Amino acid sequence: MANKIYRALAAVAFLLRHPSSILQVYADADAHRKEVVRKYNLEKGLPVVDINDLLGSIDETLFPYSFLDGTSTPLDLALLKGFAKKNPGGDYFEIGTWRGESVVNVASAGMNCTTFNLSDEQLRQRNISEKIIELQGFYSKKIPAIRHVFGDSRTFNFNSLNQKFDLIFIDGDHNFESVRNDTAKMFGLLKDERSVIVWHDYGSTPEDIRWEVLHGILDGTPGHFRKNILRVSNTLCSIFIRDNFQTYFSEFPQTPRHKFSVSVQTK
Questions:
Q1: What pTM does this model have?
Q2: Mean pLDDT in the chain?
Q3: Which residues contact 147 (CB under 8 A, 6 or more apart)?
């Protein structure tokens, strides 16, 4: 997550200095879109599953929640926490933690949580700012029950964890190669037929598609499982789940399907 934040800020700064590069960004996105259409025939992206069909009615209190850059949306965290409540005492694994809001919320629902991130030294080698490094695990490192593992997902031997997981959240670096790598490796960590993978930032908003991320997800997923990958409505997330659901393809702009009630309280 910290590496993702740094890359995003650096990219914005670069584009401000080099406006012509915006054309290249659009060209790259279009190239990934064309590959997704060519290889997987998903011109409209993933089919969408309604979040209520996944969780039933939603009634969650999220704590902590910072409302700061790099934070998942409240409904993203409600999705994770809703699945955690379905697996009390189960095992959760997360790539990309940064401040730790997602893992703390999942832990509060009774799951045994492990996070995986670049170490402080690995972040320094990538010229990540000390302030961002300082904030890594801001919430989660205060909870002894949360296991923090450090390494580079491109080279780390995940079999060394000696563990399988019920719920996996992939929220690391979002370039194509990283998403493909993380996706392929996480399928080997699934515990059983009920295990679920959630990817963050499938979209930059609940209505658009990050084609580079989708391309990485599809390329990293075993072929027989691609039919089980869906977009989750009203979130930035996509999901691998082996149940059957009614789905639809979204259009922009979307007509709201639900009214959500939101309460905000400072603590």
A1: 0.91
A2: 92
A3: 113, 114, 115
